[in-house]
Amino acid sequence: MTRTREWLYAWLLLLPAAALLALFTHYPAVANLWHSFYSTPKAARPAKFIGIDNYRALVDDPIFWQALTNNLWYALGTIPLSIALALLMAVWVNERLPGRGFLRLAYFTPTVLPMIAVANIWLFFYTPEYGLLEQFTNALGFGRHNWLGSKSTALPALMAVTIWKEAGFFMIFYLAALQSMSPHLAEAAAIEGASRAYFFRRITFPLLMPTTLFVLVNAVINAFRLVDHVVVMTRGGPDNATALLLYYIFEIGFRFWDSSYAAALTMVLLTLLAVVAILQFVFLERRTHYQ
Amino acid sequence: MATSTTGIYAPHGPARVVETLGAWVLGVLWVLPLLYAFWSAFHPPAFSTRFALDAPLTLDNFVKAWHAAPFARYFLNTVVLVTMILAAQLVLVTLAAYAFARFDFPGRNVAFALVLVQLMIMPDVLLVENYRTMTALGLKDTILAIGLPYMASAFGIFLLRQTFKTVPRELDEAARIEGCSPLQTLWKVYVPLARPTYLAYALVSVSYHWNNFLWPLIITDSVESRPVTVGLQVFSSTDQGIDWSIISAATLLTTGPLLVAFLLFQRQFVQSFMRAGIR
User: Fold this and answer.
1) pLDDT tens per residue across span A28-82
2) Which chain B residues have a beta carbon less than 8 Å from that of A121?
3) What is the domain range of residue B28?
4) B115 shares contact with chain A (CB less than 8 Å)
C-alpha cells in the first residue's frame, strides 16, 4: 500500500468513532462553554448574549457553593475510606482465609448492582422507625434518629452507600495487582528477616502504587459523576445538605429548565475533571520516568 | 488464582484468627443490606421489618410488583438498549483501535489524545448539551437517544488498542502476503486473538448500561423507551404507599438477570473487570 492510501485507510477506519465522539463529547463540551455566555431562551425571548452574567450569578449563588462544598466533603469522605477498605479486602481475599469464596462474593456483589437499586435498598435500611438501622440502634438503647432527614447525617449516610458499593470494585484491581506480584519477593524478604508489616510497608504497598493511582483517579471521577443515589434517597435535601454538583446541574437544567445557567455550572464540573486529568498526566509522567 | 504471593507472609496463629474474624465481620456487613432486601421481598408485608423464624415465604410481592408497572416492557427496552450499544461499540471500537494500533498516519497522536478526552469528560456529565442535541435531531424519548452518546467508547478503543498492539507483526504480515486486505487481516488475525478482551469489555459494557440511570431518566419520558432503572424509579417514587415489600421485590426483579448472570459467571466477571482495569 502506498503511504497516502494507508493514511486514507486509517482515517476511514477511525471515521465512524470519530464522528460520534465529536458529536457527543467534543461538540457538547465546546457548545456548553458557548451557551454559558447566553441567556436561556424562553418562548417570547430568544437567547441573547449576556457575557459572564451566568458566572456572576453562580458566584452569588449560595446553593452552588454548598453543592460544591458538599461534593468536596463527599469526595474526601468516600475516596480514602473506600480505597483503604478495598486494599484490606484484597489482602484478605488474597490470603488463604477460610471462606475466601464467600468473602470475595460478598465484597464484590454490590458492584454489579445498579446504583438506583442499591439506593432503594439502603433507603429502606435507613427508614425511620421501621428500618433495620433504627431497629438495631433501638435495641442498643439509642434514641430515634432520622438518618436521611437530618442535615448532619444525610450526607454521611449517602457516603456509606457509596463506600459500600465502590470498595469491592476497587478491591478487584488490588487483587489483580497482588496476584501478579512475584512470590520471589516475599521469599527474598523472608530470608532477610523482614517482618510482615515491614514487607507490606516497604515492598507490597510501593509496588501497588500504580494501582492506587488508577483507583484514585476512578474514585475521583465517580465522586463527581455518580448522583443516582441522591435522586432516589434525598433529592438533595434536607435543605440542600446532600446536593452534589451534578445533582444541582440536573435540578437547574431539568427541573427549572434554566439551560444556560446549567451550562455555566457544567463548566465548573468540566474544569474540575480537567484538573484531575492534568494531575493524572503529570503523575503518570513522573512514574514512567521513575521506571 | 492458584498462587498466593503472600504465602510466606500469610498470617499465623492468633493473627490469623483475628484477620479471619475481621474479614468475616466485613463480609457479613457487606451482604446485610442485600439479605434485608431479600427478606422483605420474600415475606408478607407484615414481616418486612419483623424477623421471625416462622415467617411464611411468599412470591406475592413479586406478582404485585410485576402487575403494578409495565416491567416486561422496561426489560425489553433495557435488553434492546444494551444489545444495541454493545453491537455498535464492538464495531466502532474495533475499527478505531485497529487504526491506532497498526497504522502510521499524520495526526495519530492528536487524534488519540482527543479520544482519551472522553475518559474524563464522559457523556454522563454533558447532560444539558446532549439533551439539546437529541432534541435538535428529533430523537428525544427514543432508545437510540439513550445509547448514541456511549457508542464511540474511548475506554473500549484504549483497551482494544493495547490488545492489538500485542499481536505479533509477523502474523499481520503473513496475512498480507497471503493477499488479505487490511480489513480481512483485522477479521482473521486480530479479532480472534483479542477474544478475552472482547469478553471483558462486553461484560463491563453490559453491566454499565444495564445500570445507567441519570441520562436515561432525562432523555426518556414514556413507557416505550424507559429502561428498567428508570422504570423502577418511576414505580417506587409514585405513591406506592410505603409498601417496602413490593418495592424490595421490584428492586430485586430489576437487578435479577444481572445478579443471576453474575452468580453463574462469577469468575469471568471478576477476571473481566480485572483485565479491563489493567493498563
Assistant:
1) 999 999 999 988 888 778 888 888 888 998 899 999 999 999 999 999 999 999 9
2) 33-34, 36-37, 248, 251
3) 13-64
4) yes
Question: Are B163 and B196 found together in one domain?
Answer: yes
- Domains in chain A (CATH in brackets) are 52-290 (1.10.3720.10)
**Whether B235 and B270 share a structural domain:** yes
- A232 chain-B contacts, CB cut-off 8 A: 233, 236-237
Q: Does a cis peptide bond (omega within 30 degrees of 0) precede residue A238?
A: yes
CATH number at B115 reads 1.10.3720.10
CB contact under 8 A, A273 and B117: no
Q: What one-character-per-residue DSSP string does A128-194 give?
A: TTTSHHHHHHHHTT-----TTTSTTTHHHHHHHHHHHHHHHHHHHHHHHHHHTS-HHHHHHHHHTT-
Do residue B109 and residue B213 come from a single domain?
A: yes
CB-CB: which of A25, A109, A190 is closest to B34?
A: A109
Between A and B, how many CB-CB pairs are < 8 A?
Answer: 300
User: Exposed, middle or buried: residue B244 (CB in 10 Å: 0-12, 13-18, 19+)?
Assistant: buried
- Cβ of B131 and A253 within 8 Å? yes
Is the bond leading into A210 cis (omega within 30 degrees of zero)? no
User: Where are the alpha helices (H) located in B105-179, listed in sequence order?
Assistant: 108-120, 127-136, 143-147, 154-165, 169-177
| DSSP per-residue letters across A135-149 | HHHHHTT-----TTT
Do A270 and B124 count as a contact with CB atoms less than 8 A apart? no
Q: Are residues B56 and B76 part of one domain?
A: no
Q: Which of A227, A248, A18 is nearest to B215 (CA)?
A: A227
Which pLDDT score is estimated for A41? Answer: 84
What confidence tens digit (pLDDT) does each residue in B125-149 have?
A: 999 999 999 999 999 999 999 999 9
Judge if B53 and B151 occupy the same domain: no
Say how many residues make up chain B: 279
If you count them, how many residues does chain A have? 291
Going by the DSSP 8-state scheme, the letter that residue A60 receives in this structure is T
Contact B29, A109 (CB under 8 A): no
For the entire predicted model, the pTM comes to 0.89
Contact, A116 vs B213, CB < 8 A? yes
Residue B116: CB atoms within 10 Å: 15
Instruction: State ipTM.
Output: 0.86
**Beta carbons of B5 and A179 less than 8 angstroms apart:** yes
Cell of B117: 478526552
Between helix A115-126 and helix A132-139 the angle, nearest 10°, is 30
> What is the separation of C-alpha A279 from the centre of its chain, rounded to a whole number of angstroms?
16
Residue B240 phi/psi, 5-degree rounding, is -85, 20
